[in-house]
Design goal:
The structure holds 2 protein chains of 2 kinds.
Chain A (H helix, E strand, L loop, with lengths): L5 H4 L35 H12 L22 H7 L2 H4 L11 H18 L3 E3 L5 H18 L7 E5 L5 H8 L3 E5 L9 H7 L4 E7 L11 H10 L3 E5 L19 E3 L20 E3 L11 E6 L8 E5 L15 H37 L15 E4 L10 H10 L6 E2 L8 E4 L7 H20 L1 H5 L12 H7 L10
Parallel strand pairs in A: 2-3, 2-4, 4-5, 5-6
Antiparallel strand pairs in A: 1-7, 6-7, 8-9, 10-12, 11-12
Chain B lengths: L7 H11 L28 H12 L9 E2 L12 H7 L2 H4 L11 H18 L3 E2 L6 H15 L6 E4 L5 H11 L6 E3 L7 H11 L4 E8 L10 H9 L3 E6 L17 E5 L15 E5 L12 E5 L5 E5 L6 H4 L12 H38 L5 E2 L9 E5 L4 H10 L2 E2 L2 E2 L10 E5 L6 H15 L2
Parallel strand pairs in B: 1-13, 3-4, 3-5, 5-6, 6-7
Antiparallel strand pairs in B: 2-8, 7-8, 9-10, 11-12, 12-15, 14-15
Helix pairs in contact in B: 3-11, 5-11, 6-7, 11-13
The chains are: A alpha/beta, B alpha/beta.
């Protein structure tokens, strides 16, 4: 059943929420500025509640089922996070309040900075970036400004492995760098020979995702970093896959110079149907003064009885402000709570169980699917969603058929270096029973692919809608409830 | 541990299937020297302890519940109907991700489609995307769009000095990587008549974009008709940064023939939360739709001919175009866009106009009361304003603030922080949440300071 839009449900004259009458004398607005009409929908509160409740039921979610979307770390989002982020003393504070009246907020941000430092091994943290992609932009701009300040403006080249997320090259060109792709070797590592040949005086840096998007830990990561450093470049770590490294390896310890965190992946803040994310950035000591502000620091030390007095500061060579105010504070609260509930052992347990789940699932799934890079994986792995002996079946068909079995599909067609890729990330919060059910579904689909290919090609069959005409969407370009006149 | 479900026996079984003895064996690729560091973190808290701890930390704040707040300057305290958060808390919404698989994401997709519709109606523009991070980054993306629209040939981005100072900084940050792009405007006067003239005087055939704010940072409602005409004569684009609540009452950017209109959607049902997450609204004329960064939802049909929604024009985006895409934006502010959609649906035409009108009336009453105190006056008495205005004070604002804070008032924003020449100027915002008594109490308390 199609749910009507809010405009189709609207009844002229119906009123939802009302406000008190003005308790002050009336002033009129100059005529030339008055808006003649505004066509907002007219609904009752119950109309609105039912409409959005109906819509919510058309969604797949982590709360509803297994969501093995590779590279997105769709772990359970603890409910306590939602409660504490809404505490009125946090949620009802204005960003420009007197600093003495928001010491609680700054205390929390300071603690989160400190704990992220400890977890990652970096010297300094800025919490301001709004999402992972913005964190990447921060990293690239820092690399650029670092070379400028060092009177080394000819360093214009950023190396990016061919397995990288699309945001890496997009970020680099937004920052004015020349992007040079690096091939992967047969074991899925950065190709060292190719890297060496690019290490020259124009090298600004390397953007490295480790574990990479194949879910593999680069076996030569220390050599890779050393080569880039020797050539005068900096190494950017894409923190998208940090979940596999919590309590296992601190990226700062192996020489990464700058890295962003995805609080919405690793630290359990909800994905929200596509945001808000939160993408703090950590850097080594030599880059600390390039971070975007404001950053929280202690202005007056505390003692056993009184807390320190916190304030904001902006680093000396800062690349500048990334957004208004101080980042996604309500996400900082959630991530802090999650870290506080885990402690040192809990951090390591997250990574260990995520890697255990991924290797278990990989071992079972590869019985029926081609695993192009067959070695111990970290938190995720990539198989091919197609078979030579079953032509006509694509990764997309396998994905769509998984929906009929009650699962969200893995990431499709990424990374680009795997043919018909299905990228699977189970996360640590899934039980063996759930993984076993998923394995049964994957096995069932592999059999169906041979016996009844049309069943897959026409899938999904049990979802609220069937496959969509994406060509029509792009051609007709209907982007709102009515079509604007040209 | 609380959120990992494995029993010791299951771990044994799983390791056996994998073919290793212990979990540590799965990490042999990690350099041994650095493997399994001791983390110096506090011991874990149970949920009950964590709830207490967070409650304790939050008690270090004083909130707008306890204080009468006249702060605005980019973040506004509005009443949020209970139904907004009740719906946002549905796990089906907030624990879903970007709707890549339309068959199981119609809820999110239709909500974004409705958001896009509401935003085009609100602004009078043709097209809205699925949102950006906040108003400041939306403005920076407008500069980015203009730069790419002219293929990097026009180098100047003119930003009025009466645009939010943090938005101006953000635009500069985003532009620094692009070759030879110059952001101008900071050298102008903040004063409207001279400042606007100075800005208009700079528009030429090297101008990619002119950025103005409406109402401007000082709350003033300014007629940009002439500026936009001049910009268009020179072939430049114009971006208007708007306040969404104001558009319940005043003419929308579309009526001025703006090319791009962006704003922060925080006033539409999103709590203050110390500055974020908020909502970047990005709308434009139809002809720029293919240059637009960020996600777009389009209507189509499924195989059975049913109406359905999908992410569309994805070929513009980073995951397809990689280094050739114009922006790296990946997530949007999905849940915040949903909040705004629910808020506007609940208030509807009538409620939304009522809120805008209440803001306008109360702010004007406040301006009247405050400017009647000896030694205080409006900085721009001749210019119309919406719900924010500048009060000139007899002493520097920081000398007045303590007294007000001691009486339970958060005074307006001290403009000297961003405009050194505006000592003794306070930017005051008034929304529907303040009563006549609150305003009169503010006036009475200010009068005490003046007489100190």
């Amino acid at each position: 059943m199609i749910e009507p839009t809010i405009y189709e449900l609207s009844q002229p004259g119906r009123i939802g929420v009302t406000f008190p009458e003005a308790d002050v004398p009336r002033t009129s607005l100059p005529r030339e500025f008055i808006r003649s009409d505004i066509a907002l929908p007219e609904l009752s509160e119950l109309d609105v509640i039912r409409h959005f409740t109906h819509l919510s039921k058309l969604n797949y979610s982590i709360d509803g089922g297994f969501y093995p979307l590779g590279s997105c770390t769709m772990k359970y989002n603890p409910k306590i996070n939602e409660e504490v982020a809404r505490l009125p003393s946090f949620a009802h504070t204005h960003p420009l309040q007197p600093i003495a009246s928001v010491q609680g907020n700054l205390h929390l941000m300071y603690e989160l900075q400190e704990r992220l430092k400890e977890i990652s091994g970096f010297h300094s943290i800025s919490l301001t970036p709004a999402a992972g992609a913005q964190g990447e932009l921060v990293g690239a701009l820092i690399i650029k400004k670092y070379h400028q300040e060092n009177q080394d403006p000819d360093r214009v080249k950023i190396l990016i492995p061919d397995s990288a997320h699309g945001t890496n090259p997009a970020t680099s060109s937004m920052s004015g760098f020349k992007v040079v792709p690096l091939p992967s070797d047969v074991r899925g590592n950065v190709d060292l020979e190719a890297l060496k040949s690019e290490c020259d005086e124009t090298l600004a840096g390397l953007m490295l995702t480790n574990p990479n998007t194949l879910g593999l830990f680069d076996e030569h990561v220390e050599t890779v970093i050393e080569l880039v450093h020797e050539a005068g470049g900096l190494v950017y770590g894409d923190g998208a896959n940090l979940n596999a490294l919590l309590g296992v390896l601190r990226p700062g310890d192996v020489g990464f110079d700058v890295m962003h965190f995805n609080l919405h992946k690793t630290f359990s803040t909800p994905h929200g149907g596509g945001g808000p994310g939160s993408g703090p950035v950590g850097v080594s000591e030599n880059l600390a003064e390039f971070l975007p502000g404001p950053i929280v620091k202690i202005f007056v030390e505390g003692d056993e009885e009184t807390l320190p007095f916190f304030g904001f500061y902006t680093p000396k060579y800062s690349i500048g402000r990334m957004k208004a105010f101080y980042g996604h504070f309500a996400m900082h609260i959630r991530a802090f709570t999650y870290i506080a509930m885990h402690g040192p052992q809990g951090m390591r347990e997250i990574a260990e169980r995520a890697v255990l789940n991924a290797n278990y699932l990989m071992t079972r799934v590869k019985e029926d699917y081609v695993l192009p890079y067959d070695r111990t994986c970290m938190h995720e792995f990539v198989v091919e969603g197609a078979w030579k002996e079953k032509p006509g079946i694509h990764a997309l068909d396998v994905s769509k058929r998984l929906m009929d079995y009650g699962f969200h599909p893995p990431t499709n067609y990424f990374p680009l270096i795997v043919h018909e890729a299905l990228m699977i990330e189970p996360t640590e919060t899934e039980s063996k029973q759930t993984l076993d059910k998923f394995v049964s579904a994957m096995k069932g689909i592999a059999i169906e692919a041979a016996e009844d290919p049309e069943l897959l090609q026409k899938a999904p069959h049990s979802t609220p809608i069937r496959r969509c005409d994406e060509v029509k969407a792009a051609r007709d370009l209907v982007l709102c409830c009515w079509i604007p006149e040209d | 541990m609380m959120f990992t479900p494995h029993t010791p026996q299951e771990i044994e079984e799983m390791l056996k299937v994998i073919g290793v003895d212990k979990i540590e064996d799965l990490f042999e690729n990690v350099p041994e020297k650095h493997r399994f560091p001791e983390l110096d973190l506090p011991e874990p808290l149970t949920e009950m302890e964590a709830a207490d701890e967070l409650d304790y930390i939050s008690s270090g704040n004083a909130s707008t519940d306890e204080f009468i707040s006249f702060l605005g300057a980019g973040a506004y305290n509005h009443y949020i109907p209970a139904a907004v958060d009740m719906l946002l808390r549905r796990g089906e919404f907030y624990t879903a991700y970007t709707p890549y698989q339309p068959e199981v994401s119609q809820g999110t997709l239709q909500a974004i489609f409705e958001f896009q519709t509401l935003m085009t109606e609100l602004t009078g523009m043709d097209v809205s995307n699925a949102s950006h991070y906040d108003g400041a980054t939306a403005a920076a993306e407008a500069a980015n769009l203009a730069y790419h629209f002219f293929r990097g040939k026009r180098k100047n981005i003119l930003v009025s000095r009466a645009v939010h100072p943090q938005y101006r900084e953000t635009i500069r940050t985003y532009m620094q990587g692009l070759e030879n792009v110059v952001v101008l405007g900071d050298e102008d006067q903040a004063d409207m008549s001279t400042g606007l003239q100075q800005l208009t005087g700079k528009i030429d055939n090297n101008t990619a974009l002119v950025v103005v704010q409406y109402p401007d940072f000082f709350g003033r409602v300014i007629d940009y008709t002439n500026l936009i005409k001049i910009a268009h004569t020179q072939g430049a684009l114009v971006c208007m940064i708007f306040n969404p609540t104001a558009l319940g009452l005043i003419k929308p950017p579309g009526d001025y023939d703006a090319d791009i209109a962006v704003g922060d959607g925080q006033p539409l049902g999103i709590p203050l939360s110390f500055g974020g997450p908020y909502l970047g609204i990005f709308t434009c004329k139809k002809k720029y739709v293919r240059k637009l960064a960020g996600r777009l939802v389009g209507e189509t049909v499924d195989e059975e001919g049913q109406r359905a929604y999908v992410l569309t024009l994805t070929a513009r985006e980073q995951h397809i175009r990689r280094e050739k895409s114009t922006s790296n934006i990946c997530t949007n502010q999905g849940l915040m866009a949903l909040a705004a959609t629910i808020y506007l649906s609940l208030l509807g035409k009538d409620g939304f106009q009522q809120v805008a009108n209440l803001c306008y009336q109360k702010a004007h009453y406040a301006a009247d009361q405050l400017s009647n105190i000896d030694g205080f006056e409006l900085a721009f008495p001749e210019t119309p304003f919406f719900h924010e205005f500048v009060l000139r004070t007899p002493k520097p604002v920081n000398e007045i603030s303590d007294h007000l804070i001691n009486h339970g008032i958060f005074p307006g924003y001290d403009l000297s922080e961003a405009y050194p020449e505006m000592n003794n100027h306070m930017l005051i915002a008034v929304t529907e949440t303040l009563s006549r008594e609150d305003i009169e109490f503010f006036a009475a308390t200010l009068e005490e300071v003046a007489n100190d």
